[in-house]
Amino acid sequence: MANMLVTGGAGFIGGNFIRYWSDHHPDDWVVVLDALTYAGNEATIADVENVELVIGDIRDADLVTQLLRDRSVDTLVNFAAESHVDRSIGGPDAFIDTNIVGTHALLKAARAVWLDSGSNTSHRFHHISTDEVYGSLMPDEEPFSENTQYRPNSPYSASKAASDHLVRAYHHTYGLQATTSNCSNNYGPYQYPEKLIPLFILNALHGRPLPIYGDGTNVRDWLHVEDHCRGIEACLLRGRAGETYNIGGGVELANIEVVDRVCTEVDRAFSEIGNLDERFPDAPAASGHKSCDLKIFVEDRLGHDKRYAIDDTKARNELGLVPQRDFSDGLRTMVRWYVDNPKWWQPLWADRDTGTA
């Protein structure tokens, strides 16, 4: 039985991980530390057993230290982060504070409790990062491996790169038993509707424009959040301390193709599920039209990376990790989840910012 502290556990990926871990390790006790900012939603984990939610900030090293000691925590998984590139361009300070200063506060607390106290506690600090720290690929370049040089291009990715380096430094300098995973673009249930796929699902359901940056040819690798959770589990159980593992979905798609496939799945839902035209009367599909008619092209984002791609050979060989969720099936399931769960997303939708693919 493990006692685990999960930071950012009420967010999209963190919340899905809480649900996954509870299903697969029901005897473990999990403490969630989350500031419940705009992207944190208590409803995401409200029905999960053996989970204690503590509302607080990862920058509060005293609070983290207290939780590690009082709850006898031996595993810390750090999801807490500001993660939206557009927001980082408009307001980078929050990204520096949370992603760098916050991660350092967690590391200091972990060092104090697990190393400096002399307890010699068997422990693991796992840090969740992104493929965006590697920069941008040209169409003919090899995918990112764990040995790819860091070349972040946005305030968001730069802040994550810095946090990755801090985790590495605490392992090599102090002996903290730490691992890091760099994932590709996640999608799935409980995703905040500022990200491409949930935003465009909900825009299509409400008959709102689907704004696409530039010509829509920017390419991303897509990873279902359940496969990501499975990868984090593998890192915790089989990963070697001091190592980094790339976790990808193996599905490279241009943004325009993702948008087209979202539109197809929304239209399919209207043809297969009764009364959607009554629930979402503003959707093009409610009146027999196509969701793709909502597409518009807008000025490209500043510093927009052209392509991300993941080489997950190391995770496959060392951790036995292979993605299990097919993108088409995962996307169809995701569209149906948003159709079936308006009580979860409606409060977020009311407070949403505009977004772009």
UniProtKB/TrEMBL annotation:
Coiled coil: none annotated. Keywords: Lyase, NAD. Its cofactor is NAD(+). Residues 5-334 form the NAD(P)-binding domain. Its EC number is 4.2.1.46. It is an enzyme of class 4 (lyase). The keyword Lyase applies. InterPro entries: dTDP_Gluc_deHydtase (IPR005888), NAD(P)-bd_dom (IPR016040), NAD(P)-bd_dom_sf (IPR036291), Sc_DH/Rdtase_CS (IPR020904). Pfam families: GDP_Man_Dehyd. One of its GO terms (molecular function) is dTDP-glucose 4,6-dehydratase activity. GO terms for biological process: nucleotide-sugar metabolic process. SUPFAM superfamilies: NAD(P)-binding Rossmann-fold domains. It catalyses: dTDP-alpha-D-glucose = dTDP-4-dehydro-6-deoxy-alpha-D-glucose + H2O. NCBIfam families: dTDP_gluc_dehyt (TIGR01181). Belongs to the NAD(P)-dependent epimerase/dehydratase family. dTDP-glucose dehydratase subfamily. This is dTDP-glucose 4,6-dehydratase. It comes from Aurantiacibacter aquimixticola. The gene is rfbB.
